[in-house]
Amino acid sequence: MPGEKAIITRNIRVxxxxxxxxxxxxxxxxxxxxxxxxxxxxxxxxxCLPIVVKDLLEADGATVLSVExxxxxxxxxxxxxxxxxxxxxxxxx
Length: 93
What we know:
It is a single chain. 19% of the residues lie in helices and 41% in strands. By secondary structure, it is α+β, with helices and mostly antiparallel strands. It has one domain. It has a 5-stranded antiparallel beta sheet, covered by helices on one side. A hairpin with a 7-residue loop joins strand 2 and strand 3.
């Protein structure tokens, strides 16, 4: 319909590192250079990461419908990675 904007998905790969001594988690992304999220555990990271991704996208002028994060799906069952994927649903400009 005229005037309707398309919905696009932006996939943002996020690397998560754990501090050897404190166990603190730090998330950064080459896909989103300003992203830096610290968390004490995986639950806090899962809670904070979508909020920060949404805030950064909106600061760049995007209309964000949702942000969901999940593990890297290409790994075999039973393996874990220090990589997450943030899927952001945006209205096309």
